[in-house]
Amino acid sequence: GTCVNVGCIPKKLMHQAALLGSALKDAQHYGWNISQPVHHTWSVMAQGVQNYVKSLNWGHRVQLQEKKVKYFNIKGSFSDPHTVRGLTKAGKETVVTADNIVIATGGRPKYPTDVAGALEYGITSDDLFWLKESPGKTLPSFILYVSLECAGFLTGIGLDTTVMMRSVPLRGFDQAKKTICFTTQQQMASLVTEHMESYGTKFLKRCFPTKVEKLKSNRLQVTWKNADLDTEETDSFDTVMWAVGRAPNTKTLNLETVGVKTNSETGKIIVDASEATSVPHIYAVGDITEGRPELTPTAIAAGKLLAQRLFGQSSELMDYDNVPTTVFTPLEYGCVGLSEEAAVQRHGSDNIEVYHAYYKPLEFTVAERDATQCYMKMVCLREREQRILGLHFIGPNAGEVIQGFALGIKCGATYPQMMKTVGIHPTCAEEVTKLHITKRSGLDATVTGC
Amino acid sequence: SVQAHKEEDNPQKTMEVNGLTPVPHSYDYDLIVIGGGSGGLAAAKEAAKYEKKVMVLDFVTPTPQGSSWGLGGTCVNVGCIPKKLMHQAALLGQALQDSRNFGWQFTEEVKHNWMTMTESVQNYIGSLNWGYRVALRDKKVTYENAYGEFVGPHTIKATNKKGIEKLYTAERFIIATGERPRYLGIPGDKEYCLSSDDLFSLPYCPGKTLVVGASYVALECAGFLAGLGLDVTVMVRSILLRGFDQDMANRIGEYMKEHGVNFIREFVPIKVEQVEEGTPGILKVTAKSTTGDQMIEGEYNTVLLAIGRDPCTRKIGLDKVGVNINEKTGKIPVNDEEQTNVPYIYAIGDILQDKLELTPVAIQAGRLLVHRLYGGATTKCDYVNVPTTVFTPLEYGACGYSEETAVEKFGEANIEVYHSHFWPLEWTVPSRDNNKCYAKIICNIQDNERVIGFHVLGPNAGEVTQGFAAAIKCGLTKEQLDNTVGIHPVCAEV
């Protein structure tokens, strides 16, 4: 699926490649005699990543075999409520019937429909991770976390990268994205993009492309409208990558024939709390379901629990609340729970307290790295117990930091409990247990000394 | 301040000039803190917030090798901070190797320059020393770089570097004098061996090093020295990381062994002789087996002793004021409000008996103590489920019970241990150890499978462990853990 082949896995590995580029620069400050600048070769990285992904493909096949799960490499669609018809690459037809059917076809990147040349000349994340040659000067377009993450690591390995954005960072088009903590978290999104700018990624804000043409040199010429200046501009790039959203893979499934209802706006499959569709024995999990976070771990958990419920072992439903996640931009952003905006909307600004801090990772000191955007905030209810509604962290290893706190929030953690927890020194995560300046106070939130 | 105290006879006037309310009983100060380390400074700064007249005395007796440092205590100068930075330097060495697999091109073998690293680290520490002095000044805390010792009730004598003595009185005292490395008591130890007090400011590369000890200090130092490319041997008397979960301790040792650190087990040095002078020179170490008569010899450029730390409590006049100490260990027993047997004398930090020797614990204890003394608070320091991390090459984060102590306390039948190896994604492409990282949680079956112990061995163990410690504080159960979705792909999701 997406995660293993064209999502989380190759993304994180390429992000790591970019981080290592920074590490190489830091290393000099720490005494390593390495001559700068060091150059990056795309094909070495791509091969390393692709080999690992292929080993995972193989691993999955072996596991299915070991667990006696029959695997067909065919494109399936419904011919009736209990029958799936599939075609192999060669066109050979297979028909399978089943008692229960789970649809988990995920999504695919969208192409913009209003930009000439978008389909012919642009690529998407589906292509990026499998390129054999460097994408060169790249323009990832629009702001979803996919776009920022890709732009981030492309810049990190030394490529000239520009991000074109129509409106604000990290806003998604899908309704489902609203359930992820970062979608409405404006402050954090700004810090993340600010960091990327200081890191070398160019941003074309409030711009949208109108056409992509191929030049004689084989490069691509992109024309766009700048909404602020009301002008039209052009520039040439080696690669144009679209990250304008993902569309659910439902069109070719023949869902109408069997009566599985989808959301007319998003195309996603409507399910209830037990992952059941409008047809009793047909279920759906993962990115394709309406109103769920598009994340691998939730899909995995939901799938497992579904199987456990179907075959009698349990009645436990999937809990989609407080799902933690991380955006792997050059300076990572991890979060769990509500964004500040969502908390204000739900409880009113008088009823929430936001504790925050700007901090500097110890490792940045000797490396002389800028920590301006290293920041965290905890959104709590103001009333006596001060339950934590959301935690947001920007800095290195954000995912590692947030995971444990997500557990705490699952346990109903309160601000006093957080303050009772002793910090581990010296780490970035310990700053979470020391948060004490509120936004309300207006005081300087910079952490000073031990 | 020096001028004012020379006059000595009108402390009241001095204080009024400073705009502070007079101290009862005509004491010079409301509070004198002996020791300007993590605990001492935290307490002093907190007390100043309550507008108390506070003095901090901090003094570093130079090591046998002559090393000394500024304000801030062990953590800042010769502990957590330089340790983590040098550990980072070693990790970056590994990153350099990995980066080739990720497409970064450089053919040369990259060498490490000790002086470049040490200078950068010392510069940063210097900025922290300075920062502390400024912070104390800003908060109107009087700081003297002088050795404090009790000479009578409510009275201490402060002796500075030049030998000038001054007497001060205070209503209350906090002892936060911390510890210093222990020596072996064998011929040549003080003359030729280094300790962690010397290592972080060493003005030359230590070269081929013998680390004596199996404490976290020993293993962390051995770890980063090896990571910087040095030939390192660790001489261990018996077990590794006494007091820590032994399964985890052994895994750490195995990893270090596989990554080039030599271990000599069940031997203790009996003498150290100098073969050649120099920076570094050559030292010959003779060691005896703990299980027989066997003797071995080895030559090293540097011998680093890391066999334990002793509290600085024997020469601060505690007998003059009747403060009890544990005669054997030198540690000070206190009640759960950090009070010694003398009501107006308190103690915090590494010198406390039966408490964890960690910076954040000292800071927390110091702050809460001051809140109780001057702010009318009642909250006591919570020493339960304090998380910690050992920054060995493969980092180890832990919170709560070790497997051994859990079995001892609850019985093997009443605990369940869930465990897993994991392979950090970042290690796949460079083909690094695929079965070394490991995590386990220990649950109390009788208490709703409450998580009573958390252990993780892997990169960024500290960052991973912190949040779990918070969750354990909230009474985390296995079920709640199972219900929490993982962040993908990170190590912590395991």
TrEMBL record, chain A:
GO terms for molecular function: flavin adenine dinucleotide binding; glutathione-disulfide reductase (NADPH) activity; thioredoxin-disulfide reductase (NADPH) activity. The keyword Disulfide bond applies. Its EC number is 1.8.1.9. It comes from the Eukaryota. Its cofactor is FAD. Keywords: Disulfide bond, FAD, Flavoprotein, NADP, Oxidoreductase, Redox-active center, Selenocysteine. It holds the Pfam family Pyr_redox_2. GO terms for biological process: cell redox homeostasis; cellular response to oxidative stress; glutathione metabolic process. InterPro entries: FAD/NAD-bd_sf (IPR036188), FAD/NAD-binding_dom (IPR023753), FAD/NAD-linked_Rdtase_dimer_sf (IPR016156), GSHR/TRXR-like (IPR046952), Pyr_nucl-diS_OxRdtase_dimer (IPR004099), Thioredoxin/glutathione_Rdtase (IPR006338). Gene3D superfamilies: 3.30.390.30, FAD/NAD(P)-binding domain. SUPFAM superfamilies: FAD/NAD(P)-binding domain, FAD/NAD-linked reductases, dimerisation (C-terminal) domain. Residues 323-434 form the Pyridine nucleotide-disulphide oxidoreductase dimerisation domain. The keyword Ubl conjugation does not apply. It is an enzyme of class 1 (oxidoreductase). One of its GO terms (cellular component) is cytosol. It catalyses: 2 glutathione + NADP(+) = glutathione disulfide + NADPH + H(+). Catalyzes the reduction of glutathione disulfide (GSSG) to reduced glutathione (GSH). Constitutes the major mechanism to maintain a high GSH:GSSG ratio in the cytosol. Belongs to the class-I pyridine nucleotide-disulfide oxidoreductase family. This is thioredoxin-disulfide reductase (NADPH). It comes from Sylvia atricapilla (blackcap).
From TrEMBL, chain B:
This is Thioredoxin reductase 1, cytoplasmic. Its cofactor is FAD. Its EC number is 1.11.1.2, 1.8.1.9. The keyword NADP applies. GO terms for biological process: cell redox homeostasis; cellular response to oxidative stress; glutathione metabolic process. InterPro entries: FAD/NAD-bd_sf, FAD/NAD-binding_dom, FAD/NAD-linked_Rdtase_dimer_sf, GSHR/TRXR-like, Pyr_nuc-diS_OxRdtase, Pyr_nucl-diS_OxRdtase_dimer, Pyr_OxRdtase_I_AS, Thioredoxin/glutathione_Rdtase. Residues 386-493 form the Pyridine nucleotide-disulphide oxidoreductase dimerisation domain.
